[in-house]
Every structure is written in C-alpha cells, then in structure tokens.
Amino acid sequence: MHQLWNKIFQPTSIAPLITFRVLFGAMMFFSTLRFWLNGWIEENYINPNFHFKFYGFSWVTVPSPTLLYAIFIVTAFAALAISLGFLYRWACVTFFLLFTYIELIDATFYLNHYYFVSLVSFLLIFLPANRNRSLDVYLGLTKRKTHVFNWHIWSIMLMLSIVYFYAGIAKLNYHWLIEAQPLKIWLAAHTHLPLIGSFMDDNWLAYAFSWGGAIFDLSIPFLLLIKKTRRIAYLLVIFFHGFTSWLFPIGIFPFVMILSTTIFFSIELHERIWKIARNKDEQQITIGKSVRVIVRSFLIVFFGFQLIFPFRHLLYPNNLFWTEQGYRFSWRVMLMEKAGYAQFKVYPKNDNQYIIINNADYLTPIQEKMMATQPDFILQYAHYLSSLYKSTKNPSPKVTAFSFVSLNGKGSQRYVKEDVNLTEIENSLKPIDWLEKY
Amino acid sequence: MNLIHKTRVSNFKLLNSSLFCLVTLNLLLLSSCKKDKKNDDITKAEFNKSILLENIANNVIIPRYDSLKFIVSNFNQQIQALSQPVSANDLIEAQISFKSAYQTWQLCSSFDFGPAESIALKGSINTYPCDTLVIKSNITSGSYNLGAASNLVAIGFPAVDYLLFHNNVNLLVDYFNDNAIGANRLQYLKDVVANANQQVELVANQWNSSYKTTFLAANGTDVGSSIGLMVNALNMDYEKYIRDGKVGIPLGVRSLGIPIPGKAEAIYSQHSLVLLKTSVTGLQNYINGNGSESGIGFDDYLDHLEAKHGSELLSNKINTQFSSVITKIDALQASIDVEVLNNQSKVQELYDEMQKLVVLLKLDLTSALSILITYQDNDGD
After folding, report:
1. Among A240, A407, B131, B168, which is least packed, fewest CB within 10 Å?
2. 3-class SS string, B60-103
3. Which of B206 and A248 is assigned the larger pLDDT?
4. Does A77 lie at the interface with B, CB-CB under 8 angstroms?
C-alpha cells in the first residue's frame, strides 16, 4: 500500500489522458446536442409545472426558458472546449457545475451515467489533460508536457472500475441470480428479433445473461488492467454494451462506457495515436511534500466516499428495491423491473370529503411513472398537492394514496399504507415506515 | 350484424324494449365467444407476437371498425334522407339507429392509435358533455366549420344525442319543423352525422388497407410497436375515458364527492349504462383476443410468459376483475346520471372495482409484457 502511495506520484505518459479528454468532451458535446434535438429541454424541464428534487437539493429551481437554453448552449460549448483543450480548467469547472445543476433541477431524470458524468467532469478539473495536443498549448496558454503523474490516469481508471464493480456487486442478489429477474421479463419481450428472437423467452437465456452480466461487471476492471486479457476484455466491453444498447432504451450510456474504457489501453498505443514522444527530462520532476499531502487527502476523501456511499443502504432495515432508500448514486444499473400506479385523494375541507387527483393535470407521463415507484417522489408530490389545496381554514389538507407497485414480476402489491396522511410525513433520511411491507 | 331494427314503434316504452333487444343482441354477440381455457392452451413453441397481432387485427379491430362503418353509414343515410316536415316516426327511427351506432362506437374507442389517432377520431366522435350553447349558436348562424377545435364540443355522438332526444318527442318534432330555425337544425344534424360518418369511414378504410400491414409489421414491444401502442391506448381509454369519464367524474371524484350528472355520457338519450357495459365487455374481449370467434389475445401472451399475480395466473385475475366490474354495472338500473344522484354508493362501489382493474391493466399487464407506459421518449439505465 505504501508503495502504491508512492507510485501515484511517478511520472507516466500524458497520452491516455489526452485520449480520454478528447473523447469525453466530444461525447458530452454530442449528448448535450442530442438532448436538445430530442426536445427534452422543453419536455423535461420547461413543460412540467412541478419538479421532483433530490434530498437536500430542493433549493435548486428551474430557470426561465431563455436562461435554460443559454445554460445548455454554454454546457455544450464547455464540453467542446474540454475536448479541444481550450481554456481547459474553466471549461471543466463550467461543464461540471452546469451539467450537475441541470441534473439537480428534476430528480425524475436521474440516471447513473449522468452521475458518472458529473463525477468524471469534477475529477477532470484536477487533471492536467490539456498539457498536450490542446488549443491551450497551441495558443501558448500553458506549457506542453509529455508526462503526468500516475494518479491522473489512475483516478479515471478507478472511477470506471468502481462503476463496473459496484454494478456487479449490486447484481449479487436473490432476484438477479436465483430468479433471473428482471431479465426474464425484459428478454421475453424481444422474441421478434431476427436470429436470436426465438431464444429470448427461454429461461436458460435469462439465467445465462444474469450470471454472465454479474461476472462481466465484477471482472471487467481486472481484465482491462491485465495486459494479457486486455484485448479480449475490450471486445467483451463492446459486445456487452452494444448488445444491451440494442435491446434496451439506455441512450448514450453504452457509448460512454465503450469510449471511456479506452483509457485502459497500453500507453504505447495512446502515444502512437497522438504521436507523443516522452521527454526524458520530465521523468526527474519532483513534487513538494505539501502538494502530495493535499493530493492524497483529496483522493482519500473522494474515492473513500465513492467506495462507502453505495453501501449506505445497509443502514436501512427495509428491502432496498421496495423502499429505494440508498438506491440512487450506487451504480444500480438496469437492476429491477418496477412499475407502479398511484392515485391521490386530497381532503381540502374535512377528513371525509375528498377530490381524486388526475395526475396528468400536474405531472408529465414520465414524471408520473417515476413518482409511482419512488417513495420520496410520492411524498414530495403529496406535499405539493396538499399545498395546492390549502386554505386559511385548512393550511395542510390531508392527502392519501391508493398506490400499488409490481416488483420483478411479482404482481401488484399495495405500496403506500392506505390510511396514511402523507401531508403529516416529513421527507427524511430515516427508515420509511409508511409503506406496506414487501 | 342486424343491429338496426326496422320495426315501427311509436312510443318510448316500445323504444325501451327495442333497446333491450339491442342490448341482448350485443351481449350475445360479445359473450358468445367466452373462451374455454382448456381447449385453448397455447404451447410455448406455438405462441408468437405476430399471431397475436394477426388475430387482434383480423378478429377484433377490423371487424369492429367494419361494423361501426356499416352502422354509422346506414345511420347517415337515414339522417340525410330526412326532410321537413319531420315526423315523430322519423325521429324515433333515427333514435334507434343512433343508439346502436353510439353503442358500436364503444367497441372502437380503445383503438386510439394509428389511423384513429392521426385524425383524432376519439375527440371528434365522443367529446362530452357537448356544449349546447355552441350547438345552438351554430344552428342559429347556419355557418360553422365542424373541423374547428372550438367545435369539438358541438359535434359527434354527444351533439346528435342532444339534437335527437327530448323527453317529449312531439316537442322535438316541432323543433325540427320550426319555421325560423327548423331547417338549420335539420341541416346541422345532417352535417354532424355526415362528418362523423366520414371520419369513421376514413379510419375503417385505412385499417383495411395500408395500416394493417404497418400494424402487423411492428411486432416488437418498444414504444412504437403495435403491442406498445395497443396497451398504451387501452390503458388510456380505460383509465381516463371509461373509469373517469363515464363513471368517476359524474360520481364526483373530482368534486368533493358531489355528483355532476351533467357530465355523464348520453344524458339526453339516457342510455349511458348500456354504453358503459358495452365498452367494458368490449375491452375484455379485445384483451382476450375474442371477436366472432375466440382467438389469441393478451391473456394467452400473459400465460405464455407465465405472468402471475400472487399465486394466480394474471390473465385469470384480470378476467375475474372484469367480472367484478360487470357485476357492479349490472347492479345499477337507470342511466349513470340518474344513478349518481339516487344510488351514489352503488356507483362508488362500481368505481372502486374499476379502480382495481386499472392496477391490473396499467401495472401488472404492462409490466409483465415489458411495455413502456409512457408517451414520452426518454433514456433509462
């Protein structure tokens, strides 16, 4: 371990970092454009009257449409600037802040890979990825370098490894391994596909994919690290992500992973691509002790958090899939088939007379769908409904839910306890006691 | 498909019995095909989604549109043949035809995708309650564009329902023969019916030609697939139009439990109960793939996937719940607008049973088939 700690300050080629910078920036540029062209700025952020929030981030509000579009333009250009290595640090800071801000506006659209993008763009702020093959060097804004420290490359590798490995750990559960759920349901919907269609509703295939997926996730970081297995590992990465992208609507995530994992390629390959020859003089570079302490502390805090935070669900006594406390920000990717239905009664006057809410009046279809399976959303929405119907006579009208959830093909079960007045329940991190038992 | 009774009737009692005939006929038509599960087991190897699509298109959707087209077209001819002075018999015959046309429409309202969606058939055929002020002003002015969005509340079956029905048939005859406005009124009726006829014909013809190919070819389960479209549309229809529109809103679920009978369907002809039952049984048969003969439907698909609700087969659970809903409909006697006032608790019981069915259709069925219940395109992970 001590040796490893010293190794992180050994110089290595900058080339892998250049590849990563160029690809990551370009992907983010195109993904921001794609988001715009799909009309999602309007659909996801401007059209809804109500936005779901992450715990602790209810202060994040949606800006005016003009400002929002401006933010997307700046985000796209920041991504492009990262790719080109132009005003790199500023571009990274800008991209990280704006991208994260957009994600915080509405938790409905939370995706693990957006979280990954936020984390990586945060890391990039501290990595000197603009020290070669960049506009910054070309324009003389910074000095060209052929070397960076190992930790500059390793932190990206570690981040990617955490995503895979933790996604693998998350798959080690009864539903996934023993029941082959949710894949049994998801694959069976694809019997119309050419060639493989006829196997898609076979049980053995669901088991093969479940176990195969878990083994892939757990082993791929190591297979990519080891020189001997790297080639086959990368082919597996392409196959795995290509295949899931073909079967499921998972957007750009597969491409992010396929392109990001190129950082595991050999230094020589990256150097050949960028025609970077290492300058021997730079090997002598030393670094001050205080800087080492700062970097080490940063790495310990950042990656310590990454390693521990996904396990926070262990603090809760409830079924993780049912209550979803500790579900987000934990690399639980495509892990369960959960569908819900929730209808709310608001009692504006007294506890007998109610109005049944038509969710479509307040939520977009995707918001309604997400709300019905996530307890913190149900609570936020119930509080919102209560606030809509409050009066001086009744400042916090009672709200109850008729709510059912089906998890991994088990059939619908009642979700929120029938008589619970949701208005009286505070959104908190405490274990949820207002749901029926799974 | 002899739904049009040509018998001469001259009073409402007779009309009622004729209505009863219609209902029985329809129920016969619809329930003759209750399927015997045991003879109908699909082995795993036999089932595929293309067979399901073919059966639903050929055995359910197209025959229903064809019969709607036939009935509405006959009704249209009957209306276009009217001239002043209009007689009570003319109107009573028109009323009978109208009722069977309105009833047949209920069998097609769940198909709001493809051709029907592209011309917004559902909105132009059955937006209720109609706005009598708009209708009256259209009649008075004599100039109107029935295709305008502002006229959605003044066209379709609800408008005809208003124009053709009144407690006192003689008064109705007078309206149509009125010196000042009678001609306009008759013309408006003709225009509204012709408009509906044209729209229905358009959709039915498309199903019989190009759209059928499109429908059969989209045999996946993604958002744009035929199964995805059907399941989304039937859920939308059941939740929003059948549960809320026909029962919930008149019952007062949006109005603190205070009934709003005026928002019920067919308040002038007072046959909302028949329409409700037809739409529910029609939906059940559609889901089970049953038309003039029983066939492969979503129930078979669910069984093939071994979809369960607890320990029970989901398909059984869904059909049992349909029966519970129908039992509660049968417990009502008068039309919905009357029952919400006189029998509110019974309508509430009906609503509660209907609500349980929403969960089974929107949640269990959709999730078991792995269909995205969303009209919005978005990434997942």
Report:
1. B168
2. HHHHHHHHHHHHHHHHHHHHHCCCCCCCHHHHHHHHHHHHHHHH
3. B206
4. no
CATH of domain B29-368: 1.20.1420.20
A250 Cβ under 8 Å from any chain B Cβ: yes
Residues in chain B within 8 Å Cβ distance of A341: 358-359, 362-363
- A74 at B interface, C-beta within 8 A: no
| Partner-chain contact A334 B376, CB within 8 Å | no
Which residues of B are less than 8 Å from A167 in CB distance?
Answer: none
Residue A6 pLDDT class (50, 70, 90 cuts): confident
Query: Does residue A191 share a domain with residue A119?
Result: yes
Beta strands per DSSP E along A172-223:
none
Closest partner residue to A354 (CB to CB) among B257, B362, B372 is B257
Report residue A192: phi and psi, to 5°: -85, -5
Chain B residues near residue A253 by CB distance under 8 angstroms: 379, 381
For A:388-427, CB contacts with B below 8 A are 402, 404-406, 409-412
Q: Is residue A397 included in any domain, yes or no?
A: yes
Residue A429 maps to a domain? no
CA dist A429 and A348 (Å) reads 28
Distance separating alpha carbons of residues A80 and A63, to the nearest angstrom: 23
User: A112 at the B interface (CB within 8 A)?
Assistant: yes
Would A195 be classed as within a structural domain? yes
Residues in chain A within 8 Å Cβ distance of B377: 38
- Claim to verify: residue A264 and residue A165 sit in the same structural domain: yes
Identify the H or E element spanning A356.
strand A355-356
Q: Is A14 helix (H, G, I), strand (E, B) or coil?
A: coil
Nearest to B253 among A111, A334, A356 (CB): A356
For residue A322, is it within any domain? no
Overall number of domains in chain A: 2
Contact assignment for B381 to A358 by CB distance below 8 Å:
no
Q: Looking at the structure, do residues A258 and A296 belong to the same domain, yes or no?
A: yes
Q: Report H helices in chain B.
A: 12-31, 49-55, 62-80, 88-106, 115-118, 121-125, 132-141, 156-164, 169-177, 182-208, 210-217, 226-236, 249-251, 272-287, 298-304, 314-330, 336-342, 344-358, 366-368
Which residue of chain A has the CA closest to B367? A339
Is there a contact between B368 and A353 if contact means CB atoms under 8 Å apart?
no
Collect all residues of chain A within an 8 Å Cβ-Cβ radius of residue B374. 365-366, 369
Complex ipTM, two decimals? 0.89
Contacts with A30 from chain B: Cβ below 8 Å: none
Helices A267-274 + A15-37 axis angle, to 10? 70
- Report yes or no: A369 at the B interface, CB cutoff 8 Å: yes
My answer on whether A147 and A62 are in the same domain is yes
Asked if the C-beta of A203 comes within 8 angstroms of chain B's C-beta atoms, the answer is: no
Q: Are residues A204 and A66 in the same domain?
A: yes
Full 3-state SS string of B304-315: HCCCEECCEEHH
pLDDT at B319 over 60: yes
Domain that holds residue A302: 2-314
B48 chain-A contacts, CB cut-off 8 A:
191-192
Same domain, A352 and A309: no
Q: Are B370 and A333 in contact (CB < 8 Å)?
A: no
Same domain membership, residue A77 and residue A19: yes
Residues contacting A140, CB < 8 A, separation 6+: none
DSSP character string of B34-70: ---GGGGPPPTTT--HHHHHHHIIIIIIHHHHHHHHH
The DSSP secondary structure of B252-267, one letter per residue, reads TTTTTT---GGGSSST
**Average pLDDT rounded to a whole number, residues A368-378:** 96
- Do residues A406 and A291 share a domain? no
Q: What is the mean pLDDT of chain A?
A: 95
Of A314, A329, A361, the residue that ends a domain is A314
